[in-house]
Amino acid sequence: MVRRIVFHQGTSRLALWARRIALFSLAAAILSIVIVHSGLLEIRPALVTFGASLALAILALVLAFAAFVSIWKDGLIGMGASLGAISIAILLLAYPTYIAVKARNLPWIYDITTDPIDPPRYDTLAKARPRDANPIVYAGLTAAELQFEAYPDIEPLDADIDTRTAYNASLAVINRRRWRLVEQRAPEQGRLEGRIEAVARTPIMGFRDDVIVRVKAFEGGARVDIRSSSRYGSFDLGTNAERVRRLIVDIEAEMGRQTPDEPAPIVRPKGPQKGTPKGQKTAPKPTPKGNQQPGNQPTAKR
């Protein structure tokens, strides 16, 4: 009788722990994103939770690679758990890594404006901002110099149109983006500038950034200034600058589709001269024949 010898292969504990930590980091990241989007809790704990989830994803990635070594060396089971942990970790770390590499040479600023000398001032948004948010006042000359070095192309938008048309174009673009409008004041008689204040959201995390568009008369046309500020964090990863750039491009394109809002001036006929009865036309005064000026003589046709 032949006895069958069965070798029981053990399971790599490193692979199991790598998968558990990766799943936990994924759940923590999803929870933090839900908290930020819903606004149910404070944003700072949510940011800490998201940062911790990324750290756990890195730990799971390291354990998964260590599990590969033990599986290859000792012949253990757990290849599927290791691959699952690596997939989850890469899924969580891919986009933050891309953003970090892209923004490695960007300045540590969170407030971008087309007019650093006289930046548009938040009014309604200044009252609506949380107390623990970034300061509402522009940082000044230091931030302006850092912005100019990193984003020299961000400048005001000047157009040869009236201020109301420029305001309508700006408002149409913001409405298309479905930002939450907080204040809108059109330029009217007695009001030198128009203002649009809105709250934008970042694509994935849903962070709230404040945006203001100012429209005023400039050299016979209109000038549009934009300011975009992050509420939290001292580094915006270039998000505000990219938002201002795209907003300028879209507003300029929308201006070409807008019709002038101001009516054309009405030319009124001149009234009769003084001393002329109403309804009677005044006849031109005859010029004496001998006193005709050389420039008033008729010219012969050739």
**Judging by the overall fold, what is the CATH architecture of the largest domain?**
2-Layer Sandwich
What's the total helix number? Answer: 7
Largest sheet: 6 strands, antiparallel
CATH topology-level name of the largest domain: TATA-Binding Protein
Radius of gyration: 34 Å
Structural class, by secondary structure, is alpha+beta
Strand content: 5-15%
The total beta strand count reads 6
Order of helices and strands: HHHEHHEHEEEEH
Describe this structure in words.
Strands 1, 2, 3, 4, 5 and 6 form a six-stranded antiparallel β-sheet that branches. By secondary structure, this protein is an alpha+beta fold. The chain folds into two domains: 13-102; 111-257, TATA-Binding Protein (2-Layer Sandwich), CATH 3.30.310. The chain has seven helices and six strands. α1 packs antiparallel against α2 (43-74), α1 (13-38) crosses α3 (79-102) and α2 packs across α3. It is elongated, with a radius of gyration of 34 Å. It has helices spanning 13-38, 43-74, 79-102, 124-128, 141-150, 163-176, 239-257, and strands at residues 111-113, 157-159, 180-185, 193-201, 208-218, 221-230. Residues 262-302 have low confidence and may be disordered. The chain is 43% helix and 14% strand.
What is the element layout, followed by pairings?
Blueprint: H1 13-38, H2 43-74, H3 79-102, E1 111-113, H4 124-128, H5 141-150, E2 157-159, H6 163-176, E3 180-185, E4 193-201, E5 208-218, E6 221-230, H7 239-257
